[in-house]
Amino acid sequence: MSTVVIVVIIVAVILVGALLLAMMRGRRAAVERRRERELARRREQAVTENREAAQARAGRADEAEHRARVAGAVAERERAEARLHEERARAHERGLNDDELMREDPVAAQPASRERDAGD
Q1: How confident is the model over 20-56, as pLDDT tens digits?
Q2: Who's near 92: CB < 8 A, 6+ residues apart?
Q3: Rounded to two decimals, what is the model's pTM?
């Protein structure tokens, strides 16, 4: 009987040892799964934050492009007005717009007509 008791004790020790090993492995696996879930959660959070930042920057870029287009249109209008004034200046240099000047200043236009009348 003592041999049977020793065998039973040895088998029990082996079973308890195997059970402890299985529990440790299960605990390690649970810890590993917990770490993986935490990593996945952090990864998802980083993705969300980066996408939100990208959308915000894209919005600011669109606004900046719009302001640039408006500024370009204003600059083009100013260039066109500058060209118009330059053309008017050239016309005045050549004497092509004297009639316009005379219409603007009726006093200056009257002496010229008086001189014509006096010469007749």
Answers
A1: 988 898 888 889 999 999 999 999 999 999 999 999 9
A2: 101
A3: 0.49
Query: Which one-letter amino acid corresponds to residue 83?
Result: R
Q: Which two tokens stand for residue 99?
A: 């009639």
Q: How many residues are there in the chain?
A: 120
Q: From residue 69, how far is each of 65, 76, 81 by CA, in Å?
A: 6, 10, 18
Q: How far is Cα 41 from Cα 35, in angstroms, rounded to an integer?
A: 10
Q: Using pLDDT thresholds of 50, 70 and 90, give the confidence band for residue 93.
A: confident
Nearest 5°: the CA angle 47, 52, 57 is 125
| Cβ-Cβ contacts under 8 Å for 91 (sequence gap 6 or more) | 97
Percent of the chain with pLDDT over 90: 56
Domains of the chain: which residue ranges?
Answer: 2-96
